[in-house]
Design brief:
There is one protein chain. The protein is an alpha+beta fold. It has one domain: YaeB-like fold, CATH 3.30.2310. The protein has 4 helices and 5 strands. It has a 5-stranded mixed sheet. Helix 1 runs antiparallel to helix 2.
Length: 99
Amino acid sequence: MKIRILEFASQDLIDGFHFYEKQAIGLGNYFLDSLFSDIDSLQVYAGIQPIYFDTYYRMFSKRFPFAIYYRIVDYKALIYAILDYRRSPAWIRKQLNKA
């Protein structure tokens, strides 16, 4: 399965990098490495996660409190958002509606 990270999700990764890099030097890179590893696992595991907000699959990151929201279209995993899952469901839905 091919994976495509859409623009809003790319910005989510950049924002997460900056947040964690402010916490400790190098933590931002660890955040990106961890999330990209989770995203790469979609090549094998895409479609087995539960569906949330009617149309998005949600996969949790293994190391950080983030969820990857994606859809499968024409045998491609399209990643729409990568969001902190501790936020309110209303905020998450609003972010997904922007994507």
